Amino acid sequence: MSATVAFDPSSLKFNEAGLIPVIAQDASSGEVLMMAWMNTQAIEKTLETGRVTYWSRSRQSFWIKGETSGHVQELMDFRFDCDRDCLLVLVRQTGAACHTNRRTCFYTSVRDGDEIELMSPME
């Protein structure tokens, strides 16, 4: 391992819209929960508050996970890949991660050419 270096969000590679993809993964189980986007300010807010904050492309505004639903993502670890163009946030997830009220957004599988729903919405 090398010496620590101060993190600078501008060292990441953002797309032409100033966004970077983020995968949220459950820190305990390793389950992949969702994919969303962050900009520099969302990264800064996430690191400052410990509450995962995304950038909503449809609303063009910050989206603090769980702010309205109560399905909070508490940041446990913040990582980026070797190309610095994708983020991984390890989180403590409260409730559903998906807006369909499922634990994960990845609840559909393709098996033998058919779509299979792997889980129902949480109650």
Automatic annotation (TrEMBL):
<dbReference type="GO" id="GO:0004636">
    <property type="term" value="F:phosphoribosyl-ATP diphosphatase activity"/>
</dbReference>
<dbReference type="InterPro" id="IPR026660">
    <property type="entry name" value="PRA-CH"/>
</dbReference>
<feature type="domain" description="Phosphoribosyl-AMP cyclohydrolase">
    <location>
        <begin position="34"/>
        <end position="107"/>
    </location>
</feature>
<feature type="binding site">
    <location>
        <position position="83"/>
    </location>
    <ligand>
        <name>Mg(2+)</name>
    </ligand>
</feature>
<keyword id="KW-0479">Metal-binding</keyword>
<comment type="subunit">
    <text>Homodimer.</text>
</comment>
<keyword id="KW-0368">Histidine biosynthesis</keyword>
<dbReference type="GO" id="GO:0000105">
    <property type="term" value="P:L-histidine biosynthetic process"/>
</dbReference>
<feature type="binding site">
    <location>
        <position position="105"/>
    </location>
    <ligand>
        <name>Zn(2+)</name>
    </ligand>
</feature>
<dbReference type="Pfam" id="PF01502">
    <property type="entry name" value="PRA-CH"/>
</dbReference>
<keyword id="KW-0460">Magnesium</keyword>
<comment type="pathway">
    <text>Amino-acid biosynthesis; L-histidine biosynthesis; L-histidine from 5-phospho-alpha-D-ribose 1-diphosphate: step 3/9.</text>
</comment>
<comment type="similarity">
    <text>In the N-terminal section; belongs to the PRA-CH family.</text>
</comment>
<dbReference type="InterPro" id="IPR038019">
    <property type="entry name" value="PRib_AMP_CycHydrolase_sf"/>
</dbReference>
<feature type="binding site">
    <location>
        <position position="98"/>
    </location>
    <ligand>
        <name>Zn(2+)</name>
    </ligand>
</feature>
<comment type="pathway">
    <text>Amino-acid biosynthesis; L-histidine biosynthesis; L-histidine from 5-phospho-alpha-D-ribose 1-diphosphate: step 2/9.</text>
</comment>
<comment type="function">
    <text>Catalyzes the hydrolysis of the adenine ring of phosphoribosyl-AMP.</text>
</comment>
<keyword id="KW-0028">Amino-acid biosynthesis</keyword>
<dbReference type="GO" id="GO:0000287">
    <property type="term" value="F:magnesium ion binding"/>
</dbReference>
<dbReference type="GO" id="GO:0005737">
    <property type="term" value="C:cytoplasm"/>
</dbReference>
<dbReference type="GO" id="GO:0008270">
    <property type="term" value="F:zinc ion binding"/>
</dbReference>
<keyword id="KW-0963">Cytoplasm</keyword>
<dbReference type="GO" id="GO:0004635">
    <property type="term" value="F:phosphoribosyl-AMP cyclohydrolase activity"/>
</dbReference>
<feature type="binding site">
    <location>
        <position position="81"/>
    </location>
    <ligand>
        <name>Mg(2+)</name>
    </ligand>
</feature>
<feature type="binding site">
    <location>
        <position position="82"/>
    </location>
    <ligand>
        <name>Zn(2+)</name>
    </ligand>
</feature>
<feature type="binding site">
    <location>
        <position position="85"/>
    </location>
    <ligand>
        <name>Mg(2+)</name>
    </ligand>
</feature>
<keyword id="KW-0862">Zinc</keyword>
<keyword id="KW-0378">Hydrolase</keyword>
<comment type="similarity">
    <text>In the C-terminal section; belongs to the PRA-PH family.</text>
</comment>
<protein>
    <recommendedName>
        <fullName>Phosphoribosyl-AMP cyclohydrolase</fullName>
        <ecNumber>3.5.4.19</ecNumber>
    </recommendedName>
</protein>
<dbReference type="InterPro" id="IPR002496">
    <property type="entry name" value="PRib_AMP_CycHydrolase_dom"/>
</dbReference>
